[in-house]
Amino acid sequence: MFIENPVSLSKPSGNEISTFPPGPLVYDKSDYIGGFRHLVILGVDGFVLLAITTPLTSISPWLSVISVWCYLVVLKPSRFRSPGYWITGAKIITLDGRKPSIIRMTLRLSWLVIWLIGFPINFYVDWLWTFIEEERQMLCDYIFQTRLVRNHAQPIGPGRIQYVFVTAPVLAVGYARVRPLTIQSSAVQTPDQLKSVVA
Question: Which residues sit opposite 178 in a β-bridge?
Answer without folding.
Answer: 161
